[in-house]
Amino acid sequence: MPRPKTLPNEEVLDAALAIIRREGPDALTFAALSAACRLSASTLVQRFGTKTGLVRATLLQAWDRLDRLTAELAASTAKTPAGAVALLVGLSGDYGAIESYADDLLILREDLRDPLLRARGASWRDVLSGALEERFAHMPGAPAGIGLMMAAQWQGALLWWSFDPRVPVTVFVKESLEHFVAAFRQARETHSS
């Protein structure tokens, strides 16, 4: 089968992300990507320069998708604590089974190694925390920083789920976050009494 003459970067980077998810970041080479997307390795080198540039471009595209999903969920969920839970459950659905979650931790390792990718993560943290904070804004006595606290609870729930994934991740996350919100409400009621 002849090689395609062109392929949009988005499709090339989708193939690169599939390699990373399936085989790990070290398996992403220009030769492996060439075989996956059928563009010549020299064409890929012209587009991305180095393996570091290729990995960075791949993960920046993944961050762009996460930003879009976060914005969509923020726009479509209620500005209530239940809406905050729904937003985070929606973000959790992408993890799938434990194998997928474990493989994505290798991607996180790459994000943490690259200052530009770390900055994208910090920016997303701020956007996500702000969206969660908005969902508590109408509640009297909501502590400043509740959005970041809830995001941290969510990340912890994902990690604890990974050690014992007997139920779907979305079920575990939803229950964990509902307990978080209930504890916050109980503490607020106790404090106001």
TrEMBL record:
Keywords in alphabetical order: DNA-binding, Transcription, Transcription regulation
UniProt KW DNA-binding keyword: yes
Domain of life: Bacteria
Keyword match Transcription regulation: yes
GO molecular function terms noted in the UniProt entry: DNA-binding transcription factor activity; transcription cis-regulatory region binding
DNA-binding region per Swiss-Prot/TrEMBL record: 29-48
Domain (HTH tetR-type): residue spans on this chain: 6-66
SUPFAM superfamilies hit by this protein: Homeodomain-like
PROSITE patterns membership: HTH_TETR_2
Alphabetized InterPro entries for the sequence: Homeodomain-like_sf, HTH-type_TetR-like_transc_reg, HTH_TetR
Protein name in UniProt: TetR family transcriptional regulator
Biological source species: Sinorhizobium saheli
